Amino acid sequence: MKPEETMNYLSLIKGTVLKMNQETFAQWKDALVGQYIVFSVIATEEIGQEIMAEKLCDYFEKAELKNGKSFEKFVEVYFSNLDSIVAGRVAKAPQQRKKDETHFPMPRARKYYEKAQEIRKGKLNLSGMIDYTRIMMCLYAAIIKNNGKEIQNFDFATSSLKLDDIILAMKEEQDALPFNVIKKKKFDTVDPCGMDAITFILAITLLYKITGENLEGGNENE
Amino acid sequence: MSEAILVNALEQLVPFLNEKNVLELVVRGNNKRIKAFQKVALDGLAHGEEQALVNKAIHALNANTGMAQRSLQLVQDVAKMQQLGLVLNGLNLCATCAGFAVMYAKLDSMSTEINRQFLHLQNMMKQGHDLQASYEFDKILSEHTNMMDCRKTKKPYSEEKMRELVDAEYNVLKLLTGVAEKGLAADRQNMILSIFSMLSMFTVSLCYFDEQYYFNNRSALGDKEVWHSSHQNWMSVYDKLSSPWFIEMLQDYAMFETKLNTLGVDVYYLALVEQIRDLREKVEDNQELIIALGDIELLHSLHEAINANVEQAIEAAFSEAYTEDNLVVPRELLSDAFRMAGVA
């Protein structure tokens, strides 16, 4: 297995945008262009993979300058944002009483959540970003299906990832403010280069990468 | 219908050749994941221009499988880390004596541990008394080998003996899935291998039994239910192994007990889920074929003809690969490939 290169936005773009099949690319482009990525001159239908890849490079470069933070920091915030919408809604292992000899198994969802945290602590690379996103988003999809309530189990299959539902649910997430006086949305994507907008771009890109992998037909353009 | 299909001579398949004189057969790939229409030309009919068509047909076959090249590569990568190759070739290996020997060696080494788990399960479920026959894994393995050997020597098991074997393999499968469901297995990799191997053996035995039962009893059964009364029950094992808890167990094993990443986990569990589906289809396809052909000799001739053509296709593919380097195909490599394809 060849060693993974150090993570930067170029590795992300090369490993995702440039490897998507035509169908996945078209869907991913539709999800981003207009909302998060804006083109002034080129018509949407004329935007190919290379153009999108170049545009995304420029976007991250601009975002780094504007925020004064590196791409690695963006990923850190992305991980932390996903954690903030999942962590509290994954059932914890039941407390073991000292006298109680019965062993309570850890809920399956919690086992996977902890695995994701292990991945997060490891060396940052594209494979880790994909694995973390896959587990956390599958957990989140199960939470959405359970009306936002705590989950014990979840569906690990990529078919459980309904991308539009996930993005919509993320947009609707609210911050838990004291006494529920003011309801404030958790993510603010008004600033196109803001940390929340970056989280959405990363989430959408990685989600399409994950669901675009078609193991039945090997559909990546490699 | 019986007059229209090949019995003993390949010439009788001529009516089924397409306009390019190529016969299309449905085959399963070695890895059990790919079903393709294999295009073959018949031996004796392929001369000159026809020979070129054979080569073209094989190229077409390769082109078809090439579509899934990336998936194959992923499966192979995962198979290197696991015993996935053995599992995915299960049905083919179980179909012949020589093939089954490959599996037997591996399974036999695990039988002591598996028998211990059966006992544990029976004690736990307090079923020891109910399940009077304490099924032993190694005994079923040796019985399956014996059945295969008897077929090889043209002294096949009687219908009753086949039914007993199918029932015994079904019960062992139930015990194995019970061990899996209760989380009693110390080594999950071996448990998964033993479940899939036993499922392949069971599938082969069930197909043989269906043939015998149908042809022995069809006059008595008439238009009524033509399969054995236990058939539905036996088939339930495929449902059990397609249920969410089993799929979750495969995912959990791959996620927590191997070094696979999430894509590798997908390759692993999806290949196994498809294997279960393929094995079920094998039984159902066989039933349809039995009814459609309506004659056991014809059925066997068809199986032989298909095997012969698969052998030809394999041989041709190897020869082509070796021609470029002017090498002779090693005999053992070829017989290995035949064995893996279940035609040895």
Show the helix and strand layout.
The complex is a heterodimer of chains A (222) and B (344).
Chain A lengths: L8 H7 L6 H11 L16 H19 L3 H16 L21 H14 L4 H20 L17 H10 L1 E2 L8 E2 L9 H18 L10
Antiparallel strand pairs in A: 1-2
Chain B lengths: L22 E6 L6 E6 L8 H18 L2 H13 L2 H5 L1 H5 L2 H12 L2 H14 L12 H16 L6 H23 L6 H34 L9 H10 L3 H14 L4 H32 L2 H28 L7 H10 L4
Antiparallel strand pairs in B: 1-2
Descriptive account of the structure:
The complex is a heterodimer of chains A (222) and B (344). Chain A has 222 residues and is mainly alpha-helical. Chain A has helices at 9-15, 22-32, 49-67, 71-86, 108-121, 126-145, 163-172, 195-212; strands spanning 174-175, 184-185. Chain A has a two-stranded antiparallel ribbon with strand order 1-2. In chain A, a hairpin with an 8-residue loop joins β1 and β2 (184-185). The longest helix of chain A is centred in the middle third of the chain and has 20 residues, at 126-145. Chain B has two domains: 10-67 and 303-340, no CATH class; 83-294. Chain B is built from 14 helices and two strands; from the N terminus they run ββαααααααααααααα. In chain B, strands 1-2 form a two-stranded antiparallel ribbon. In chain B, a hairpin with a 6-residue loop joins β1 and β2 (35-40). The two termini of chain B are 29 Å apart. The chains are: A mainly alpha (222), B mainly alpha (344). At the A-B interface, α5 and α6 of A face α2, α11 and α12 of B.
